[in-house]
Design brief:
The protein has 314 residues and is an alpha/beta fold. It folds into 2 domains: 5-113 and 184-311, 3-Layer(aba) Sandwich (Rossmann fold); 122-180, Histone, subunit A (Orthogonal Bundle). The protein has 14 helices and 6 strands. A 6-stranded parallel beta sheet has the order 3-2-4-1-5-6, sandwiched between helices. Strand 2 (30-34), helix 2 (53-58) and strand 3 form a beta-alpha-beta unit. The radius of gyration is 19 Å and the shape is globular.
Length: 314
């Protein structure tokens, strides 16, 4: 049977998307298209929980290590490159598996949501960054005034996304949430089987704590040290969760204990916002992975993918 549909696997950070995507792609002879806004950056490996070289050797991955941290890379860039990867898979009759936790990227890729004006404006971005460095709370308050829906799902310390949302508003005269409503479903690029992964909150938060501890043990501090040495201006990419907190520690602003605490706390908050984003999508077939071992997860995700395909007549 001809492959015409994309399998989409989404969920909060640390829920198990990487393992689930690998299992699904291996079982269905597919390839993985990452939908993680930070895994596109070279050198940002530990803090983004990027699939290991061993994992990437098992299944071909796309949209990993496609940009340098000092480069501007936005949703438009992602859609252009990821669309080509999906189309290539379909042309070769290889099952595309889109997997990640960046909801905006997933929906932009699958539904065709794009901002009318995507070209970068270095002067505007530089001005907003200077304002952020002067007082981050002012920019979040400004976003709340022009786009309360987007401001409500962004952490007040999320410089990259707050600046991006304000940039969109200033360049188009429309809020990001308004543009999403206007374009939702109008230019769907690909047909999808949507699978959402979740766990009971206690287990998810335990996994987050364990992941953060593992990141520090694996050398997150050394990774950030190297990046700051290479990119002393600390580009937008290094404002990502985990990286900015370690940068604060390295500059003596907080202790290591405070750094670890902040990364864990903000990762939990991030996971909560991710779940809120994805739960709005009625297309998702949810699968609770609580208490499952890797073998069970593999079986259940593949089974759910096949069942969803059957339900959709695919």
């Amino acid at each position: 049977m001809a492959i015409k549909t994309v399998i989409v696997i989404v969920g909060p950070t640390a829920v198990g998307k990487t393992a689930a995507a690998l299992a699904t792609a291996q079982a269905l002879h597919g390839e993985i298209i990452s939908a993680d806004s930070m895994q596109v950056y070279k050198g940002m490996d530990i803090g983004t929980a990027k699939p290991t070289p061993t994992e990437q050797a098992l299944v071909r991955h796309h949209m990993i290590d496609t940009a340098s941290p000092e480069q501007s890379f936005n949703v438009s860039d992602y859609v252009k490159q990821a669309s080509a990867a999906v189309a290539d898979c379909l042309a070769r009759q290889v099952q595309p598996v889109v997997a990640g936790g960046t909801g905006l990227y997933v929906h932009a890729l699958m539904d065709g949501f794009l901002f009318p004006d995507q070209s970068a404006d270095p002067a505007l971005r530089s001005r907003l960054m200077e304002e952020w460095q002067a007082d981050p709370h002012i920019l979040h308050s400004r976003l709340k005034a022009v786009d309360p829906a987007t401001a409500g799902r962004l952490h007040p310390n999320d410089a990259r996304r707050i600046i991006r949302a304000l940039e969109v508003f200033e360049r188009t005269g429309k809020s990001m949430s308004q543009l999403q409503r206007e374009t939702a479903g109008k230019q769907a690029r690909f047909s999808g089987i949507w699978i959402g992964l979740t766990r009971d909150r206690t287990e998810l938060y335990q996994r987050i704590e364990q992941r953060v501890d593992a990141m520090f043990q694996q050398g997150l501090i050394e990774e950030v040290q190297g990046l700051l040495k290479t990119y002393p201006q600390q580009p937008t990419a290094l404002q990502a969760l985990g990286y900015k907190e370690v940068a604060w520690f390295l500059r003596g602003h907080i202790t290591l204990e405070e750094c670890v605490y902040l990364v864990k706390r903000d990762t939990r908050r991030f996971a909560k916002r991710q779940l809120s984003w994805f739960r709005r999508d009625q297309r998702l077939h949810w699968l609770n992975l609580t208490g499952m071992d890797d073998h069970e997860i593999t079986a259940r995700v593949v089974e759910r993918s096949r069942k969803a395909a059957h339900e959709h007549g695919i």
